[in-house]
Fold:
Amino acid sequence: MLKELDTLKDTLTITLTTPDTDNRPIFITGNFCKWLPDLPHYQLKKIAPGRYSFEFPSDFGFPFPLEYKYTRGGWDQVELDRYGQPYGNRIITENTGVIADFVTRWQIDNATKLDLMPIIEVLSETFEIPQLHKERRVHVLLPHDYYAQPDRRYPVLYMTDAQNLFGEGSPYGNWQIDRGLASLSGEDKANVIIVAIDHGGDQRVQEFSPYDNPNLGKGLGNLFLKFVTETLKQQIDAKYRTLPDRLNTGMGGSSVGGLLSMYAALMYPNIFGRLMIFSPSLWISRKIYFDAIHFFEPFETRIYLYGGGQEGSEMIPNITKLQETLANQGFGYSRVKIKTSLNPKGKHSEECWGKEFPKALKWLYSGE
Structure:
């Protein structure tokens, strides 16, 4: 049990040195303040770039030995060791007057920092899809500093199943791409506009599938892509500061939305140069492989393929076959870059797709 001392004989001063790459304030916390991570009167004073100090009052009552840590304002922003792991409690066993500490790295939960979260706008609650004679809600996720940089233009990624992508998600789960984008913002890798289109509920599979299927009916996916390319894209390019060329225009989705994105790569190479294809429902029609055999792309294209080993026995073999089909057709392939990411433990779930999303976005738009 900790023994309370009335005071330490001398004033205790702590100095901290840390890389000067982060503007967040620094707090000291410990057993002297119930380990609360962001009390204003325990904020360190910045005395120089990367140099901070804190002086305890001379009459301060300490628990002893003194245990403490540093935070940037919360336990999700605590100090880390040089390997990126949580740093153990620091301990002072005797009054030495001045303690000199150093922090190499800090945990950054960018998703909880509102200044890095994407700006989410509703383009329309009832955006007309003339090709399908329907209406659909469309969201636009803008980089967090979009309005602070009025001269900057951005690439665009169109995504299906908006209900499952951000915010509170849906009963099926949530990709949490808003949090993923906030995390990427800390690396300056989230400079992409996301256009998220709601799915049609029980008509989802039929609307997204580009192929007819005897059990699913007539596929309307090509009409849906005509909506994206001929109707929606025009309004997005007119309203927002986009880079409208094909190299800066992408399509992404999962399951039947992944199949639709693959079809977009094959049939609309003049529009889409970046494709995010997660767990595609290649079983709907074997014709996808026939179309891939005839795929010729004279321009640069990036395709990110992802699938999990817990999605059924055919998911990974089908993705492997698709990748090999694209590669083996050869002609023009040097300009088509494909990254295949296979997770043996991956499930057919929003959680798995959400974890893969930041990796895919970085590779597609930053080449990393």
Q: What stands out?
A: The two ends are 51 Å apart (CA to CA). The chain has seven helices and 19 strands. The chain has a mean pLDDT of 87. Residues 112-366 form a domain with the Rossmann fold fold (CATH 3.40.50.1820).
